[in-house]
Structure formats: C-alpha cells, structure tokens
Amino acid sequence: MRGRIPGNPLRTLVSVVVILAVVITVGVVVRHAWQQRGRCGDGVERHGPRDECIGLTDGSYVFAPELADVQGKILAENRRVLAQGKPYVTIAYFEPMTLVENDVTTYTAVRHGLQGAYLSQRRANHTGEWSGETPLIRMLLANPGSQAREWERVVDRILRRGGGADDIVAVAGLGQSLGGTLDATKRLSEHGILMVGSVITADYFSDVDYLARVVPTNTNEVSAIVEHLKIDTKRAMLVQDTNPDDKFALNIGEVFRNIYPRDGRVLVPPVEEYLSADDPTDSFQRMAPEICVANPDVIFFAGRFRDLTRLLEVLARRPCRELTMRIITGDTIVDVAGNEQVRSSLSANIKVEYLHLADHRAWSDSPAFFLDRSTSYFTSAEGDGVFRTEFPDEALDDGLAILAFDAVGTAVSAIREGADFTRLHGQSSVPGASGWISLDSGDPERKAISLLTLSLPPGASEVAIDRKVTSCSGVPFLARTPGDPDPVRCPA
Fold it and tell me: What is the Cα–Cα distance from 374 to 267, expressed in whole angstroms?
C-alpha cells in the first residue's frame, strides 16, 4: 500500500513507551531543578533582587563562611537540647546575615552578635543565671536579608504555629534601627511575640507592644550627650542623613534638634543634610566651607559610621585647619577608637566624641555598675569564661557580643518569669554584662553607656582616649538598698 511504512507494531509501541518515559523523567528532573534553584537549605530560600538566602535555620544552613564556626556551635547546642528529653522552648535570633556591598553592617559585626547569642543560650541551658534552669532554650537563626528588606517572609515563618515546643515564643537581636526592622517588630507585636532588641535605639520602637531592648533610646543617648555638652558649648551644627529608611539617623537628629537648643544654647542654621543612599562625599565637600565660616563649638553627626569616616576625611582637608573641629555622634556598631581612618583624621586638629553601648573596658574602670558574674563570662580564662574558651581570637571592642548576650538573656529571663517583661525592673532587674537592665515599659531605665573622647594632643604620637561611664541622668542604674535617696530622673 502506497504511503505506508512497513514495520513491527510491537516495536513501535515499545518506542513510544520509551519516549514517554524519557519525557516524564526529563520533566521530573527539570521540575526538581527548578524547585531546588530557589532552595538554599531547610527553611531557607532565595528571594529578593539580590537573590539572598532568606529564612530560618537551626544552624545547619550556613549563611556565610564568616559565620560557619559560630553557627556550628549553635547547631550543636540545639541538638544537645533536643537530646535531653527535657522541656524546652524555641526562640529566634533575628539579624541580617547576608550582606551586600556598602551595607550598614559587616560580617564581623554579625559574627560577634551570633557569638554573644550563643554564649547566652549556653548560659541559659547550663546554669541558673538567667532566672532559673528551665525550660531549656532552642535557638533558631532568622535572616531577613540585607537591611531587613525581606522581613515579611521571615516573620511569616516565625508566626507559623503548630502548638508545640517548636513554636517560636520570643525573638531577640532584631538588627539595627531600620525601616524593615520597625515593620517586622510591629507585625510580631500584633501576634503577641515577645521581642528584645540588642542595638535598636530609635525612639519609634518605644510604641511597639511586647518589645523590650537592652540599650538606651535615642532620646536618652542625646540627653547624656547634651548633659556632657552643657559644660563648654553654646553653638552646635547638625549634619543630618536624610535617608528615609534609616530610622536611627533620622530620629537621633530630630532628638538633638529638640534637646540641645535650651538654656541659652543655639543650633546654628541651616541643618547640613546629605543622603546616605548615595556617596555623600560631594555633599561633605560643600559643607566644609560652611562649617569653617560658622565655626561652631561642636558638630553633631546624625548618621552611620561609614559616612562619618568620609566626613572626617573631608574635614581633614578643610580650608580652616587652624580651627579645632569637635565632632560628636551617638552610638555605632564598630570600634571607632581602633579605626585607622578615624585616628589619622585627629592629626588635622579634629576631636571625635561618641557613645559606646557596651565598652568592655568600663568593667575595670567603673566596676560598681557591672556585675562580675555576668562580665566574667567574657573575661575569665577558666570556669565561666566561655568567650575566651570558645572564641580565643575574637575581640570585644565593638560590644556586639556583649549586647547580644544581654538581649538573649533578657528574653530568656522574661520567658522564665511567666513571659512577662514587667517583672524585670528594680530589684528584679537583669544583671547584664553591659550594665543593669531595669525595664520601664520596655525601655531600660538609666542604662549605663560610655562616652569616649578621642584626640591627638599637640606633639603627641599616640591618640588619647578618655572614657566616662554615664547615663541619660548622668548616673547609671543601680539596684537600690534601704535608705537610698530617690534616683535622679532623666530629662524629659
């Protein structure tokens, strides 16, 4: 028959089956590869324009090589908790752990925070120091991505609840005072999740229910600074970052504008503004002549450390080198005194003053405000000196391990006190390594902070560093004894 190709019907059927099997297999492989393309590990998936690995892990997925060691220790402690067969609860340590170029933080800073969180978890599970010995603490790591931009996905995972011990009952850390951080805390608050911030200082967070923090608010920071400036300044200039996403910079500048111009002091107009989303060097270069002409007693810098170094570089080349430039700023998450760029700028007749939220050198300088049983976790070479044993090559200079240690410890104490922050005040304050934590509606009362002044005296080759432990009232919180006078309150 014309037009028909002769052949074996059985062979034709087998060929069709083989072809279909290949197609199905290829389809399964392609679909699996497509699914795996967005998956980084259990509970962690790729999201966002930067393709970051976002989500929750018990430490088994490593977000960056720089974090591998400490994540391994957290994973081991989590597995030990599960193997105990004792009652436990789960908390999350929320912190951006995948960073991009020119981020507001560094992997060194993230690593130090995780180290402190691990030490606090270990202390909770091995001692009775954080308000008892039970329940044990399992800790998951929550990564919302650079600048917490993918916070919604992570918060959604935190809120998935099955009614068991693996439900997350508290969140600690929370990163810096950024827009994404604020949005995340508000969403968690709506669901009654306890939260403790380690470095968030912006006043905006004071209105978030179920949130506490172990650091002073921006208002309290600026109050401490202004108390210091009352001694010898009358005229100040403000250099302000206008980035709408940086709640810390916006808020601390606003607070300074409100508090400094009192008792005859003047804020020299106009406010010198820059935008940190761009390279602000050109803005700083245009500011320099204005600063020279105004010749203020002090310049208050409301911005992040990376931009402060750029401003100092520009001022080091200013046309009025004969005039002393006194720069003061709030807290920062880096070791300012150890930064070479900062130290080199001092030779250009510049003085830098800043707040340190957890300066370990204050433990020996002002021991009255710090409990040895907490600080020894970092300083001792034996016994409870776990930091030196576990992380022998790491430094405490930025204070981030100390603050994360206190944040997780405060969360654990609240959990063990009936999931209630309101009990953690006065005589029941948390003995943090950064100072006593007495919570007043979630904000620490008269929290100890260090004011550091860096200068290079004429003819000197070494930078002079002056340290003073202070608070918003001038005197840090101490637990009272019978007969003690009422404490000095912070300025309103």
Answer: 41
